[in-house]
Amino acid sequence: APTETSSPSLKTGAYILIGVGALTMLMGFLGCLGAVNEIRCLLGLYFTCLMVILITQVAAGLVIYFQKETLKEELSHIVGSLIESYDPLNGDDRNLQDAWDYVQRQIACCGWTGAKDWENNEILINQSMTAYPCSCSNSSKDFQVDSGFCNLDVLVNGTATYADWPVHEQGCMDGVEKWVKDNLGVILGVCTGVAVVELLGMILSISLCKNIHNEDYTKVPKS
């Protein structure tokens, strides 16, 4: 069966990001064109686009805040399915598997709730857990290996459990939450900075519109 790697919330979020990106490109073009040629309707459209983007960002932040438990459950299901079907020889899900390996290496975590999640992997089950995901490893000998499965050096009766693996104990869910908490100030600072720039752009576009409007009146010949 194909790996289920999508969810309504994540799809909605992806579509929102794509839409905001396209709107940002269009907005920049219209803003430059309107400012250079002093076209009021384009400046007005630029202001509207900025306002829509700002409202979208605030709405997305509220959705993430109030729906965080639902998003966490959906991510848990997605990652669980990915771990269960993880296969280094499967090229179809290669990009997704590489992304998950990258997360485990960077955060120094293993599985979603812990290394035990990997006991559901079909390949590891067939190998009686005598191998483990290399991206989870905390062993120096696996330092250069960043994906796929690594074999245990010492086997007990030819079988093993996740407790025998030289891997990180922390699950990636806890690791991600810790990373967000540690970097919350930076995240809020970046979001605030972006919002301030957008507000300044809105103020600037309104000011240009007013100046163009005043210039139009001054150019009218007096009777």
Please provide a written account of the structure.
The protein is mainly alpha-helical and 223 residues long. It is built from 7 helices and 2 strands, in the order αααααββαα. It has a two-stranded antiparallel ribbon. The chain is elongated. Belongs to the tetraspanin (TM4SF) family. It comes from Steatornis caripensis. Keywords: Membrane, Transmembrane, Transmembrane helix. This is Tetraspanin.
Tell me the layout of helices and strands.
Layout: H1 8-37, H2 40-66, H3 68-85, H4 94-107, H5 122-126, E1 131-133, E2 149-151, H6 172-182, H7 184-218
Antiparallel strand pairs: 1-2
Précis, in short:
The protein has 223 residues and is mainly α. It has helices spanning 8-37, 40-66, 68-85, 94-107, 122-126, 172-182, 184-218; strands at residues 131-133, 149-151.
- The CATH topology corresponds to Cd81 Antigen, Extracellular Domain, Chain: A
Tell me the structural class.
mainly alpha
Helices, by number, come to 7
| Secondary-structure element string | HHHHHEEHH
Which spans have pLDDT < 50 for at least 5 consecutive residues?
1-6
Count of domains: 1
CATH superfamily: Tetraspanin
Assign the CATH class: Mainly Alpha
Spatial strand arrangement across the major sheet: 1-2
Task: Report the CATH architecture.
Answer: Orthogonal Bundle
Number of strands: 2
Q: What is the beta-strand fraction?
A: under 5%
Termini Cα gap: 81 Å
In percent, how helical is the residue content? Answer: 55-70%
Mean pLDDT: 81
The biggest sheet, with number of strands, parallel, antiparallel or mixed sense and barrel status, is: 2 strands, antiparallel
Given the C-alpha coordinates, what overall shape results?
Answer: elongated
Radius of gyration: 26 Å
